[in-house]
Automatic annotation (TrEMBL):
Protein name: Cation diffusion facilitator family transporter
Protein family according to the UniProt entry: Belongs to the cation diffusion facilitator (CDF) transporter (TC 2.A.4) family. SLC30A subfamily.
Membrane topology designation: Multi-pass membrane protein
InterPro entries named among the record's database cross-references: Cation_efflux (IPR002524), Cation_efflux_CTD (IPR027470), Cation_efflux_CTD_sf (IPR036837), Cation_efflux_TM (IPR058533), Cation_efflux_TMD_sf (IPR027469), CDF/SLC30A (IPR050681)
Entry's localization field: Membrane
UniProt domain Cation efflux protein transmembrane: residue ranges: 21-212
Lineage: Bacteria, Bacillati, Actinomycetota, Actinomycetes, Pseudonocardiales
All residue ranges annotated as the Cation efflux protein cytoplasmic domain in the record: 224-289
Stretch forming the signal peptide: none
Keywords associated with the record: Ion transport, Membrane, Transmembrane, Transmembrane helix, Transport
Pfam families associated with the record: Cation_efflux, ZT_dimer
């Protein structure tokens, strides 16, 4: 005899629509400005900062498009969980994009050490200052959502890296103006690349863990199984699965073998309560099998 239950899965991603749209507009405007000035002045630091800002625009754009997609395409017969995984794919895309840009800037900066070009410090300083203002607007708009959504965190990480990049470009421009140290330009570019790479790799790994359905880091399947087994009327818990659908959405399924005289509905209710209150698992599917009733799990061939 089996019983299953699952609460509806809902997403809070809609609340991130306005800050993402604001960030997208502001960053697109200043990215164009930095590209133009960087090409005119020949500043690699400014071009690297502009490249990061372009990836910001792309990254925030992907995050924005994903939120629109997720909120318009609810769960249906073809996508029974909706399209929440699109948020994870967007985060992974952001990580890949940032790694590529950072790698290119690092290689180009090392090559420039041999012959640092003349860079006009004042236009670089003024443009970087404007870029910093744009990044700060986006930084504060996305900061709250970055704590809850992997998708928004990817866009936030893009903006954070570019904020640091703008600060570095400003410092480099001041040093070039004051002392004529043109070698500072590639040094700043390298510093920005090294700052963002570890954070980007971490974001990519988080997205991959979700996509391969790894157990959420704060949950232990052994502990969950033991807790289910300890419930009144339960003889055994098995086939326990824990995974993440998208940021903040953990899902679980389990099979319970109950005593012959146990009430399956009561066992089911106790299991749901335990998983929700102790482990924060609200979307769960629990199958209850009465011992000796002939009901048993089907073993898949894979």
């Amino acid at each position: 005899m089996g019983h299953g239950h699952g609460h509806g899965v809902t997403s809070a991603s809609g609340r991130y629509l306005r800050p993402l749209a604001l960030s997208f507009g502001v960053l697109a405007l200043f990215a164009a400005l930095e590209v133009v000035v960087g090409l005119i002045t020949g500043s690699l630091a400014l071009l690297s900062d502009a490249a990061h800002m372009v990836t910001d625009v792309i990254g925030v754009g992907m995050a924005l498009a994903t939120v629109l997609l997720v909120n318009r395409r609810k769960a249906n017969t073809r996508h029974t969980f909706g399209l929440y995984r699109a948020e994870v794919l967007a985060a992974l895309g952001n990580a890949v994009l940032l790694v590529g840009v950072a790698g290119y800037v690092l290689v180009e900066a090392v090559q420039r050490f041999a012959n640092p070009p003349e860079v006009a410090g004042l236009p670089v300083l003024l443009t970087a200052a404007a870029g910093l203002a744009a990044n700060l607007v986006s930084f504060f708009a996305l900061r709250a959502g970055a704590k809850e959504s992997l998708n928004v965190r990817g866009a936030y990480l893009e903006v954070l890296s570019d904020t640091v990049g703008s600060l570095g470009v400003i410092v480099g421009a001041v040093l070039m103006l004051a002392f004529g140290w043109h070698w500072v330009d590639p040094v700043v570019a390298i510093g920005v690349g090294l700052f963002i790479l570890p954070r980007t790799v971490k974001l990519g790994l988080q997205a991959l863990r979700i996509l391969v359905q790894s157990t959420p880091g704060h949950l232990d399947p052994v502990v969950v199984t033991e807790a289910l087994t300890s419930l009144d009327g339960v003889r055994e818990a098995h086939d326990v699965h824990l995974w993440t659908l998208t940021s903040g959405m953990e899902v679980a399924s389990a099979h319970l073998t109950a005593a012959p005289d146990a009430d399956p509905t009561s066992v089911l209710n106790r299991a749901q309560t335990l998983l929700a209150e102790r482990f924060g698992l609200e979307h769960v599917t629990v199958q209850v099998e009465l011992a000796g009733s002939g009901a048993r799990c089907r073993n898949p061939r894979w």
